[in-house]
Amino acid sequence: MVSREHKKAALHEKLQLLRSITNSHALNQTSIIVDASKYIEELKRKVEILNQDIATAQSSSDHPNPMPGVMVEALEKGFLINVLSEKSCPGLLVSILEAFEELGLNVLEARVSCADNFRLQAVGGDNEEQAESIDAQVVKQAVVQAIKNWSGSTEQD
Question: Which of 29, 54, 115, 144 qualifies as a FRET site for 23, CA 20 to 30 Å off?
Answer without folding.
Answer: 54
